[in-house]
Specification:
single chain; about 240 residues; mainly alpha; 9 helices; globular
């Protein structure tokens, strides 16, 4: 089968899609479920036919997904899905997250408004659970709540640059959700609550330490998933 034709078994919406938001969510699910595999060229016309829309909302959705870090655009070659991280890249990602998000939590403890502290505390108290279902949809609730918690802290830090950088780092992690275990939700809840408590108390050192401890534990929970990752694809001719 060529790249010009839709692949059998891809998600098909139950109704005609007319809104960019619908197209964005559909394509995002294809990427997150690896139906559009990591590192593969995205054929806009094929996606438009499959989703029964014009190419315009597909292009708009891909621009959003590029901002999310889930696809990449290169001059003269169009969009490709972002490749999965290697084990070395994964370790590097968490090293960088510890540096940035540890500092961000400390800044939030110092700079956050009363309202921001309340929102962080409320988000940490929310139960992180895993929805029934398969693939990305099984992780969607967990991913959304986890991402919101970290984003609230980044926003409360008062640094737009830190917030944007952290958001893009998280996109690489989300691509691995299909393989990561979902049994650590309760541990994640507890860790989030410790971070929130330190931020609410205005204790920058404790907030930094709690965030770094959370990320160290999260790294360990995720490592066994690398045994289930597919073998890396052979390099493709850029032409």
């Amino acid at each position: 089968m060529t790249q010009q034709e839709p692949r059998e078994g891809r998600l098909r919406p139950a109704r005609r899609l007319t809104l960019t938001e619908d197209v964005y969510e559909s394509i995002k699910t294809l990427v997150m479920d690896h139906i559009l595999p990591p590192g593969e060229r995205v054929n806009i016309d094929a996606l438009a036919r499959e989703l029964d829309v014009s190419p315009t909302p597909v292009r708009e959705a891909l621009a959003r997904l590029e901002a999310d870090g889930l696809v990449r655009k290169r001059p003269l070659s169009g969009y490709t899905t972002t490749p999965l991280l290697s084990r070395a890249e994964f370790d590097d990602l968490f090293d960088v997250r510890q540096l940035l998000e540890g500092a961000t939590a400390g800044r939030a403890a110092t700079h956050a408004s009363v309202e921001a502290r309340q929102r962080i505390s409320a988000e940490a108290a929310a139960s992180i659970d895993v929805e029934a279902g398969d693939g990305y949809r099984r992780h969607a609730a967990f991913t959304a709540l986890d991402a919101t918690f970290h984003d609230l802290i980044a926003e409360a830090s008062g640094s737009p640059l830190l917030r944007d950088t952290i958001t893009r780092l998280h996109s690489h992690l989300h691509l691995h959700r299909l393989y990561f275990p979902v049994t650590g939700a309760l541990d994640t809840n507890t860790e989030h609550q410790r971070i929130a408590a330190a931020i609410v108390a205005g204790d920058a050192a404790a907030a930094t330490a709690a965030m770094r401890a959370h990320l160290s534990a999260a790294r360990e929970r995720h490592l066994p998933a690398f045994d289930r990752l597919p073998a890396p694809a052979a390099p493709r001719d850029p032409a």
